[in-house]
Amino acid sequence: MKQKGFTLLEIMIAVFILALGVLALAYLQSSSLKTNQSAQFRSTASIMASDILERMRANPEAARDPEAAGDDAYNTALNVDPNTNDGICPASPAVRRDICQWLVLLEEELPEGDGSIDCDGRSPEGAIICAIDIQWTEAQSSGNLSATTFSYEGAL
Question: What SUPFAM superfamilies does UniProt report for this protein, alphabetically (predicted)?
Fold first, then answer.
């Protein structure tokens, strides 16, 4: 029996199988990192939605009576531009300050982060129901960027 060169072939096959295993582990690690980042963005969005809802609960008159708080109450289209004045938010009225600070935080914490608030609903008990939507852009597993929206509802 001739076995000359057979061990070289065995080694090449073993190295090929080992290389496939290493590539599979690298793909698994990459996929895990993307999933972890996506979970972090969702967690951040949840915290940011709770943050603005708590700010609104601290100033319920603005949500209950937008006219008393000025023309930029919480249920407007959020036309406060946090990029004006070098990101310095106005001190008053409190509604504009809260929204501006919230938008700045969204931009800092989420990629292309933005948000909207709609306080038009009422519960049977008379509480104001606010819908908070937070949008950001994240990479999908295919590598393409897509917009993601986190929706949150709370009562004042």
Answer: Pili subunits
Q: What's the pLDDT tens digit per position in 96-141?
A: 788 888 888 898 899 988 888 887 777 788 788 888 999 999 877 6
Burial of 68 (0-12, 13-18, 19+ CB in 10 A): exposed
Domain range list for the chain: 6-155
CA distance linking residue 83 with residue 60, whole number of Å: 27
At 149 the three-state DSSP class reads strand
CB atoms within 10 A of CB 60: 13
HSE-CB at 122 with a 13 A cutoff on CA atoms is: 5
Show the tokens assigned to 20: 């496939």
Residues 6 or more apart in contact with residue 46 via CB below 8 angstroms: 150, 152
Which two tokens mark 123? 């519960």
- 3-state SS of 38-91 is HHHHHHHHHHHHHHHHHHHHHCHHHHHCCCCCCCCCCCCCCCCCCCHHHHCCCC
